[in-house]
Amino acid sequence: MNADSLDGRLLFAIPKKGRLYEKCLSILAGADIQFRRHARLDVCLVLNHPIALVFLPASDIPSFVGKGNVDLGITGHDVILESQMLEHVTEELRLGFGKCALQVQVPEAGSIKTVEDLVGKRVVTSFEVLSGEYFGKLDDIFQLSGERRTKIDYVGGSVEAACALGLADGIVDLVESGDTMRAAGLHAIGTVLETEAVLIRSRIPKHQAHASLIDLITNRIKGVVAASKYAICQYNVARNRLPSAIAITPGRRAPTISPLEADGWVAVSSMVEKKKVAQIMDDLVATGAEDILIFNLDNCRV
Ligand SMILES: Nc1ncnc2c1ncn2[C@@H]1O[C@H](COP(=O)(O)OP(=O)(O)OP(=O)(O)O)[C@@H](O)[C@H]1O
Ligand SMILES: O=P(O)(O)OC[C@H]1O[C@H](OP(=O)(O)OP(=O)(O)O)[C@H](O)[C@@H]1O
């Protein structure tokens, strides 16, 4: 592939590996962005749109998009802040995956029990900007200057090993399930930020040329994300119980009510949040609803 083949194409950055990679591939499939990625090639042309996908490390995507080299990208909110690119990109959409928290962690058995105990000591992290800001504020509150301020050291990975190796009194690292932290004998004493994957677009004006294609792709991805969050709940209920059933399943706009052949009964169909499905079904049964069915959505526009 030569540079000419990218001419006029919207460039869309996707994490090339790691935690976000597989989910990004299902988002692309759900948005019908078709491509064939050749081994070892990090740029590939989309077959059914004037788009080229650029596979990059998640942490590099904010600056590529922020500086306008790439028009659109998927990455973590955490790395956007860490690379200080928040004001150079627009976060179009939260994607509902890659959810985790950047947390301050210390040895469970040690003497440090609070974030304040860690102030002025040694912290190791891959997020030196965010950790520097976080502990900088605490250093100011404690009026620490020079050598007495909290020392933040960067490592590229395996951050959780730093305390056991004697490099740090505490670390700042991402926590999802907490398994890594617990396995390293650490526990969290503070949260720097909560994060999830986001769709970002460049604020550089030259890329307004692609505005309508960006809107189309954004709307398609919105549909894929909504489909993963919602399900359809369908049930039958006696008409005199309808008000209390509707209160349980109000839908996004309103539920669809259809008459049943059985006298005094109606069928209700409504969008519900997937994570609330079990509680909704319990509440519907309690209100007298019957034949309750839940359907997953493949895709939607809401
Ligand atoms: N345990 C996790 N659970 C959920 N999301 C995570 C988790 N760890 C990281 N992420 C998200 O995924 C992004 C990329 O992290 P990941 O560790 O997969 O990167 P990577 O490309 O493998 O980089 P590196 O080589 O630096 O580890 C993070 O910035 C964060 O937004
Ligand atoms: O709370 P948990 O569910 O255990 O997840 C947290 C771990 O996930 C991330 O690392 P990852 O596994 O992506 O590998 P890395 O250290 O190579 O970045 C993060 O840096 C933690 O080590």
Give a verbal description of the structure:
This protein is an alpha/beta fold and 302 residues long. It contains nine helices and 15 strands. The protein has helices spanning 21-30, 61-66, 77-82, 115-118, 128-141, 179-183, 211-229, 242-248, 277-287; strands spanning 10-15, 43-45, 51-56, 72-76, 89-94, 100-107, 122-125, 151-154, 170-175, 186-195, 197-202, 230-238, 256-259, 265-273, 290-296. The strands form three sheets. It has a six-stranded mixed sheet. The chain has a five-stranded mixed sheet with strand order 8-7-9-6-10. A hairpin with a 5-residue loop joins strand 2 (43-45) and strand 3. The model has no long low-confidence stretch (mean pLDDT 95). The structure holds adenosine-5'-triphosphate and 1-O-pyrophosphono-5-O-phosphono-alpha-D-ribofuranose. 1-O-pyrophosphono-5-O-phosphono-alpha-D-ribofuranose is lined by residues 18-19, 157, 160, 173-181. 1-O-pyrophosphono-5-O-phosphono-alpha-D-ribofuranose binds at residues 18-19, 157, 160, 173-181.
Radius of gyration of CA atoms, rounded to a whole number: 25 Å
Could you say which overall geometry the principal axes of the C-alpha atoms support?
Answer: flat
Distance between the termini: 38 Å
- How many beta-strand segments? 15
Spatial sequence of strands, sheet with the most strands: 2-3-1-4-11-5
Biggest pleated-sheet summary: 6 strands, mixed
Beta-strand content estimate? 25-35%
Poorly predicted tracts of residues: none
* Structural class designation: alpha/beta
In this entry the ligands are:
adenosine-5'-triphosphate, 1-O-pyrophosphono-5-O-phosphono-alpha-D-ribofuranose
Task: Please work out how many helical segments DSSP would assign.
Answer: 9
Percent range of helical residues: 25-40%
Task: Give the mean pLDDT.
Answer: 95
Sketch the topology as an H/E string, one letter per element. Answer: EHEEHEHEEHEHEEHEEHEHEEHE
